Amino acid sequence: MLSRTADSLFWASRYMERAENTARVLDVGYRVSLVPSLGAEDSTEWGSVLTICGCDARFAERYDTVSKRNVIDFMALDPENPSSIYSSIRIARENARAERNNLTTDIWEALNATWLEIRDMDYAVLAAYGFQKFFDWVKERSHLIRGATMATMLRDDTFNYTRLGTFIERADNTARILDVKYHILLPQTEAVGGAIDYYQWSALLRSVSAFRIYRRIYRDAILPSRVAELMILRGDMPRSLHFCFREITANLDMLAEVYGERHECHRLAGEIHARLRYGKVDQVFQEGLHEFLTDFIERNNRLAVEIGRNFLMTV
Amino acid sequence: MTREGGGTRPAYSGLEDWLTSTDGDAFEMKRREADLLFRRLGITFAVYGEGGDPERLIPFDVIPRVLSADEWRRMETGLVQRVRALNAFLSDIYHGQEILRAGKIPAELVLTNDQYAPEMQGLDLPGAVYTHIAGIDMVRVGEDEFYVLEDNVRTPSGVSYMLENREVMMRLFPDLFGEHKIEPVDRYPEELLMTLRSVSPYARDEPTAVVLTPGRYNSAYFEHAFLADEMGVELVEGQDLFVHDEFVYMRTPQGRRRVDVIYRRIDDAFLDPLAFNPDSALGVPGLLSVYRAGNVNLANAIGTGIADDKAIYVYVPEMVRFYLGEEPILRNVPTYSCRDSDDCRYVLDKLDELVVKETHGSGGYGMLVGPASTKDECAAYAERIKANPDQFIAQPTLALSTCPTFVENGIAPRHVDLRPFVLSGDKVRVVPGGLTRVALREGSLVVNSSQGGGTKDTWVLGT
Q1: Domains in chain B and their CATH numbers?
Q2: Which residues lie closer than 8 Å to B164 by C-beta, 6 or more apart?
Q3: Residue A119's domain spans which residues?
Q4: Searching chain A, which residue's CA lies closest to the CA of residue B208?
Q5: pLDDT digits over B125-160, tens only?
C-alpha cells in the first residue's frame, strides 16, 4: 500500500464522520430551538453550534447575524465552508475517489450516491424536505457507509487507517460537544431541575445517541456529572472518549503487529487511553472539566499529527 | 448492419428480431438505466475548464455492434502482424536504422521529427518491445474491407469502456447473452498484468508493477484507477515514487518498496523533470537515468510517438514487408502527404472532399472535414496548410460503415469505428473485440468522445 493511500483512507473516513457529527450538532440545536420557552436566546443556541464546530470566525466573515437560517445554511450546505456537511461529504468522496481501487464497490457506491444527492441541494430544498429528516438522512448515510466498511472491507492495514480516521474525529467531536454544552447549561452537581433543563440535557445525550443508554446504565435522574462520566469514561458507550481510544489503540496495535514496529503514536495513544480507562469522574472535576477536555482535544490532535508523521508521510 | 446491395449481415441476423420487436420507449428506458449505472459506478470522463459538469458521461448506445467470428479472426491476425511490425520499426529506429538505410522511409522524416527521442538511441529493452499496449483504430469500408485509420502506440485509452460497456449490457439485457454466443472480454486486465510482468527487467518471482497516473483531474483518471483495481496493483502519482541509488521506489507506510514495471499514463514530456519538461510536477525526478540503467521498465517505452506520427503512418505497410517479409493483411486509408508537392496541390484543390489532419494531432482536434465545412473554413485551413505543408496529411472521406443506433427519433444508422487493443510482451495478446465509438450526430464522421461521440458494446460472435 502507498502512504498516500493510507492518508486518503484516513481522511475519507474522518470527513464522513465529521459530516455525521455536524448533523448531530445541528440536530440538537434545532430540537432546542423548537421549544421557545427554553429562555435561551435563539442566537446563543445557534452560536454554540458554531463554537462546537470551531467555525465562529469563519461564520462571522460571511454572515452578520447568528440565526437558525444562517447557521443551518452555513453548516449544512455552504460549499465555501470546509466544515459544512456538504464540504465534508465532498472531501470524503474526493479522497475515496482517489482510492477507489482500495475500497469495495459497496463502500464507494454508498459514498458516491450520498454525494450525488447532496450536490444539488440548497436551503429551499432542505427546508421543504424537512431539517430533521435531512439530519437523519446524513446519519443514515454515514451508518450505511460505515456498515459497508465493516461488512465488506478486507481486514488489512487499509481497514485500520479507515477506522483510525473515524475514531480520531469522533473523539474530537464528543469532547467539543460536551465542553461547549456543559458550560452553557451551567451545571450543578445536584439533579437537573425543571423541565427546560431536563430538555436541554436530554438533547445533549440524544446528540450522541446516549439518552436511552443513560437510562439503562444509571436508572436514575439526569445528573450532569454522570453525563460527563458517560461521555468521557464509559468504555461501553460507542461515542465516549474511552470507547474511541479503545478502538484507536486496538487499530494501532494491529499496525504494529503487521509492520513489526512501534512509533511515537503508539506511546501517545496508550498514554491517553490509560487516563480514560483508569480515570475517575471526581478527578476530572477536580482538574476542572473544561481544562480536562481542552487538554484532551489538544492531545488527540497531537496523536493525529503523529499518525500522519509515522505512517502517512513516510519516505 | 446491412450488406452492399441489401440484406442483413449474417452476424446481425440474431439481433434483427430483437431490434424490430423492441419499441422506442423500451430502448429509452434502458438508455436511462444505463446512464444511472454509469453514474453510480462513477464511470465518467473528466472535462475540466470548459464549464458544466466536470464529470461527464460518455453517451452509451444500448445497441451493440456485432462482428462475426470470421471477420474477427482475420482482423486479429492483421492486428498482431501490424503491431509486431511497429515494434520492430521502433527497435530498428533506436538501434541500427536499417529501414532508413534501405531507403524505405525518408531519413529526415524520422530523425528531424519531434517525436523521435534521441535518449532512446542504443537502449536495449526487455523483449525489444516498445509499444506494450497499442490501440489500432479501424473502420469498415466494404464487405470484407477494414482500413486502419490510425495507430495509437503512446498511451491509448478507452479499454475501460470496452469492459464496462459489456458489464452494463449484461445487466441491462441478460437474455440477449443467453441467446447469442459472445466472446467474453473480461480477462483483459489479467492479460495486461501478465504482459507487464513479462517485461520486468529482473526475473523476480513477483515483479512489482504499478499504474502511474497524472492524478484525479486527468480526463482518463477513471480508467487508470479501474485498471489498477482490476489488476490489483498500486495506482501511483509522481509524488508516490522516488529514485534512490539507480532504482525506483514507492512510498508506503512500511517504508520504501522497489518498483519494476511502470504502466505509465503520463506523456513522455512529463515523465522526468530532470530530463524533459523541468516544470512537470507529475513525473519522477531521475526516472530516465534508472530506465537507461535497465533497472525499471516503462510501458509504453519513451519515444514510441515516432511510430504513430501521421506522416509515418503512410509507411506502416512498408514496415510489414520490410521486417516480417509478409504482405500486410490490414490496409491503410489512402493518404496524401502535403510534404509531397504533387500531393499538396491535389489536397488544396480537393479540400472540400477530403479530411485533413495535423500530423501530430490527436483526439479529433484541429482537423478539417471538407464536405462538412463552409467555403470560408476551407479557405482558412488552406492557408494553414500552405504555411506548414509538412504538418498535414489528407485522406478521402470514406464511405464508413454504419451501425444501428438509438437516437432521439428512434433507431437510425450512425457511423462507427473500432479500437481493438493489442498487448505485446513475452507474446502478443488480443482480447476479442475492442471499443466501438459512434458518431451520434447524423452524418458526422467524427467519433472522438471530446467531439460528441458515444460508445457501444462490441460483440465478437463465438464459433
Answers
A1: 202-295 (3.40.50.11290), 340-397 (3.30.1490.270)
A2: B38, B41, B43, B226
A3: 1-153
A4: A1
A5: 999 999 999 999 999 887 778 899 999 999 999 999
